[in-house]
Write a sequence for this structure.
């Protein structure tokens, strides 16, 4: 883990990404993802009971840590967030796959009657559908897909989304109904993501 | 649909359309899409989706999936090893489970050397609640000291993180151990018995395991069994707060195959759940397979498998040689423990273990047939050498347990209440069955235990062992009190029922069904002891409470009305009692369900009230109605049939049909002696009635013998001073008087009268009239006068001015006036009363005869031609 997570590697990829290397972004995500998980576990160990691990808090923490290590400048913050959000998406989609594995055979031991677990599995299913719909959306309009990502996987406001994507607030507001319409059409359902719970 | 339009193009058109005001979009689409119908369809669909109100997707962050992910991220082991948690240092990780990680830990304060298993619980949103719960349970769990139970050593919170420290057990999981060692059936059963004994011990300490499963049972190197996590499930159960003693969401901690139906259904968890899980364990030990296979990972499938599908007999899933060994007893034992309804399983782990032991010793097992009634009947059969009343006693207790269950269901409108009721019923049932078994000659090695000893032992145990559960304690004392009441140990019954009532009053400041029942039960015993006014007050309090509690009057209100009616009837207010009984009858007739026996009982009481109002034809009809119902509902020997036969015979006697009446009484007497033995108040009642008939038939000496016999029984049962004892004295007095023993008769009347007064019994007027009449006949009218005036006043008040009872008293007072020489007054009293009492055989015959004689004498001295004189001269 330590070698993969080497600040040097992240710094290099960040610079490449900055320079317009699209592949760099994809290689950055798993690194951030690992860092993210490690941070989350440590944070959880420190955490007082009763608190819920905050996703937004984690994003900021990962950013601060990596910014410190790599010396990324302020203007790159939005890129960084985009990476973090992608890492978050990866995290949750992986987890959702694991949680729904039981329904596709195997994993029976994990089964319980717990309504909360039931909700988790429901949300996992719809999240996997959203992930696939986003893939298709990205194939013809990446910005709309990112817009959805910011909302669904990072819980961002319009303003935060605008900053992260480097567009105006007005654009986000205007694009949002369109992105949502596409997402629903791709999902083949009127249920918006997240509404399963 | 033809070729899919290019989505990038759809998106471009859509983006442009969205920029336009809504009313310009149609013409824009006309232009932009032209002949491309597919493009236009897609854009219009998306436009519709885009303009939908508030379909803003929510973030998955902080949703259930996110929370589950965060929970599944355990703190890295390396970060905590070597650190202190409470007084413990974590040495190495032993494993991870649903609740957190388990570490090998050692005392860090160096106080003494001890290693233990420390369970570091995952932090959740409810850890404050968990800690509070833990504190409550810790002491109970720490009390669990048994060689087969891994002890809870410590627990608390370190920097807010809850932890539990348990005895560290090194060993193999039970099933794996059995398989590796290739253990045979008998060796497996021996291990199972060890497990069962540990659970038994816990149940005696009021701890239910709740999560018995193979992975919680370990076999140590020396072959001993250890149960882990005893009672921990309750500590960890978020719904196990003090107000809701049992859980709904236990499920989250369960492996579904090891859940009991009540756990799946969110019903109360009791010792019966442990019995069930022991059944699962036995099944798996015997067959190597789980009793339930859950096909689909959904709650519905699970509910279907656990709550509905019957497990296959162990012998049917085992291989051929094994199958033969399992067939029969072991099949039955496992399946009895695995019954869906908790109340149909073994009533306790003790019973289940006993069956396993019996099987191992080649003795017959109890599993197979399944009702509590079956077991009770076996119990009774084993005691058949004993007194017949023991059978009556056993049946009563069983019947009562069933009633409690029924009432618990009937009252269970709110979930919490239902849970508490079910729990209470189960505890009462366990307790009762335990009592039965303590008296089982099978266990006492043939030594007979009397029912009274059984009840005493029960009361003692209830006081000692149920102090922490006042609801159950009160219920239990009430049951035992009712048992004693049926056994006519009235003083002891009263003490128990008073105690039960006191507990209920402490528990419930406001209206509550349990309090109402305790009041009602207590009113019953107070009534039986002859304190009718006090009984009425208590019964009315219970009735009023039930009326307030019930939306529409149901069984409970009807029962309350009946109780009050009996108490006031015994105080001589028959018409009022009749009204209440008719109300109760109307309620019961309007209810669905088995009301027949209760309706039969009401008809019986109604008949009694009618008879007391001298409406004997109606009374006969009422008693015959009651009898017809009872003959349909009960077996031929049932005491309730005897009651109606006795009452009907009484009505026939009052109608002057003495032979019919005596024949019925004698039939009743025979049955009652057989059922209750010779010294039961119901037997005394029949003997009393036979004595009455004998006297009416002109056999005073035989009558005296009967009344002395009834008197002896009643004195023995009720003590010296009680209404029915006074009744016997009164009737004996009449028999003596008829036999010419006037002095003895007077003494007996004088003994009876104050007893009637003390009991506020309806017999006060009757006895005053009898004594007054005797005194008049003896030529002492001055002494008689106040008694006879009182008798008339009482009867006018209780029965009405125009009643036959009042007229009978008028005869007495008229005779007195005649003896005093106040002839006009005498005539005015005697003549109309005699006229009205024509053909009323229930009126004391000597009064009629004396009145006629007196009136005849008066007629000779009076001016001729008066109506009174003519009437008075009627032939005998």
């Amino acid at each position: 883990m330590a070698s993969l997570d080497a600040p040097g590697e992240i710094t290099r990829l960040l610079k490449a990404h900055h320079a317009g290397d699209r592949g760099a972004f994809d290689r950055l995500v798993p690194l951030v993802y690992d860092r993210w998980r490690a941070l989350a576990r440590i944070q959880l160990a420190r955490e007082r009971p009763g608190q819920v691990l905050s996703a937004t808090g984690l994003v900021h923490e990962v950013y601060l840590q990596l910014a410190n290590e790599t010396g990324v400048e302020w203007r790159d913050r939005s890129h960084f967030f985009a990476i973090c959000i992608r890492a978050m998406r990866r995290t949750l989609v992986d987890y959702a796959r694991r949680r729904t594995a039981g329904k596709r055979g195997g994993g029976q031991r994990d089964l319980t009657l717990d309504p909360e677990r039931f909700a988790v599995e429901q949300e996992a299913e719809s999240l996997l559908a959203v992930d696939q719909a986003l893939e298709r959306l990205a194939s013809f309009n990446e910005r709309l897909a990112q817009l959805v990502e910011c909302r669904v996987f990072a819980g961002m406001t319009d303003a935060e989304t605008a900053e992260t994507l480097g567009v105006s607030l007005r654009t986000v507001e205007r694009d949002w109904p369109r992105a949502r319409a596409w997402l629903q059409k791709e999902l083949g359902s009127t249920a918006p993501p997240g509404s399963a719970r | 649909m033809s070729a899919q339009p290019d989505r990038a193009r759809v998106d471009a058109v859509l983006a442009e359309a969205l920029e336009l005001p809504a009313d310009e979009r149609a013409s824009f689409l006309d232009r932009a899409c032209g002949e491309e119908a597919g493009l236009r369809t897609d854009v219009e669909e998306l436009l519709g989706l885009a303009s939908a109100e508030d379909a803003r997707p929510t973030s998955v962050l902080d949703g259930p999936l996110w929370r589950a992910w965060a929970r599944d991220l355990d703190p890295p082991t390396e970060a905590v090893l070597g650190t202190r948690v409470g007084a413990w240092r974590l040495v190495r990780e032993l494993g991870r489970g649903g609740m957190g990680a388990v570490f090998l830990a050692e005392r860090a304060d160096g106080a003494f050397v001890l290693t233990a298993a420390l369970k570091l619980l995952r932090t959740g949103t409810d850890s404050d609640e968990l800690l509070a719960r833990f504190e409550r349970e810790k002491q109970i769990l720490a009390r669990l000291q048994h060689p087969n139970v891994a002890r809870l050593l410590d627990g608390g919170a370190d920097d807010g993180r809850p932890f539990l420290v348990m005895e560290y057990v090194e060993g193999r999981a039970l099933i794996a151990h059995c398989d590796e060692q290739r253990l045979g059936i008998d060796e497996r059963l021996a291990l199972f018995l060890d497990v069962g004994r540990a659970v038994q011990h816990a149940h005696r300490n009021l701890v239910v395991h709740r999560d018995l499963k193979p992975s919680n049972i370990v076999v140590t190197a020396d072959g001993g069994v250890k149960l882990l996590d005893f009672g921990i499930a309750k500590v960890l159960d978020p719904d196990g707060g003090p107000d809701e003693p049992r859980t709904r969401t236990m499920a989250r901690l369960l492996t579904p195959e090891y859940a009991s139906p009540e756990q799946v259904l969110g019903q109360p968890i009791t010792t019966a759940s442990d019995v069930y899980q022991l059944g699962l364990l036995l099944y798996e030990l015997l067959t190597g397979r789980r009793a339930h296979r859950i096909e689909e990972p959904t709650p519905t499938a699970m509910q279907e498998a656990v709550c509905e599908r019957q497990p296959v007999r162990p012998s049917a899933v085992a291989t051929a040689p094994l199958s033969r060994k399992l067939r029969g007893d072991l099949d039955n034992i496992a399946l009895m423990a695995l019954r869906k309804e908790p109340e149909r399983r073994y009533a306790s782990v003790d019973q289940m273990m006993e069956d396993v032991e019996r099987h191992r010793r080649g003795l017959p097992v109890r599993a197979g047939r399944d009702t509590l009634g079956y077991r009770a009947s076996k119990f009774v059969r084993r005691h058949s050498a004993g007194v017949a009343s023991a059978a009556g006693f056993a049946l009563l207790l069983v019947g009562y347990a069933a009633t409690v269950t029924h009432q618990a269901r009937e009252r269970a409108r709110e979930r919490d209440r239902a849970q508490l009721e079910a729990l209470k019923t189960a505890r009462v049932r366990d307790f009762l069955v335990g009592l039965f078994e303590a008296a089982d000659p099978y266990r006492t090695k043939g030594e007979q235990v009397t029912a009274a000893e059984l009840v005493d032992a029960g009361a003692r145990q209830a006081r000692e062992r149920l102090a922490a559960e006042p609801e159950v304690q009160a219920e239990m004392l009430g049951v035992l009190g009712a048992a004693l009441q049926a056994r006519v140990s009235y003083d002891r019954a009263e003490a128990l029922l008073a105690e039960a009532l006191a507990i209920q009053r402490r528990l419930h400041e406001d209206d509550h069904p349990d309090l109402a029942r305790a009041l009602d039960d207590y009113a019953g015993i107070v009534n039986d002891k002859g304190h009718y006014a006090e009984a009425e007050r208590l019964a009315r309090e219970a009735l009023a409470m039930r009326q307030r509690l019930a939306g529409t009057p149901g069984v409970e209100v009807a029962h309350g009305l009946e109780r009050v009616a009996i108490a006031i009837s015994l105080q001589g207010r028959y018409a009022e009692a009749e009204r209440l009984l008719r109300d109760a009858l109307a309620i019961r007739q309007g209810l669905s369900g088995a009301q027949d026996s209760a309706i039969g009982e009401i008809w019986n009481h109604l008949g009694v009230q009618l008879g007391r109002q001298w409406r004997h034809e109606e009374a006969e009809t009422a008693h015959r109605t009651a009898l017809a119902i009872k003959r349909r509902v009960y077996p031929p020997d049932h005491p309730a049939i005897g009651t109606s036969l006795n009452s009907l015979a009484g009505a026939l006697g009052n109608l002057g049909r003495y032979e019919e009446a005596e024949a019925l009484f004698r039939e009743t007497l025979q049955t009652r002696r057989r059922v209750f033995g010779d010294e039961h108040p119901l037997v005394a009642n029949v003997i009393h009635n036979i004595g009455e008939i004998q006297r009416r038939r002109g056999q005073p000496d035989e009558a005296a013998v009967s009344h002395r016999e009834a008197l002896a029984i009643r004195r023995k049962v009720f003590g010296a001073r009680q209404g029915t004892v006074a009744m016997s004295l009164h009737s004996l007095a009449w028999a003596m008087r008829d036999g010419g023993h006037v002095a003895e008769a007077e003494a007996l009347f004088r003994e009876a009268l104050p007893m009637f007064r003390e009991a506020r019994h309806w017999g006060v007027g009757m006895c005053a009239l009898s004594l007054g009449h005797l005194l008049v006949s003896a030529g002492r009218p001055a002494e008689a006068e106040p008694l006879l005036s009182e008798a008339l006043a009482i009867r006018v008040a209780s029965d009405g001015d125009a009643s036959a009872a009042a007229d009978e008293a008028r005869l007495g007072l008229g005779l007195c006036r005649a003896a005093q020489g106040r002839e006009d007054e005498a005539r005015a009293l005697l003549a109309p009363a005699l006229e009205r009492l024509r053909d009323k055989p229930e009126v004391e015959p000597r009064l009629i005869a004396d009145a006629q004689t007196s009136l005849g004498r008066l007629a000779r001295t009076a001016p001729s031609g008066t109506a009174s004189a003519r009437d008075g001269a009627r032939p005998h």
Remarks:
- Chain A touches chain B through 66 residues (CB under 8 Å).
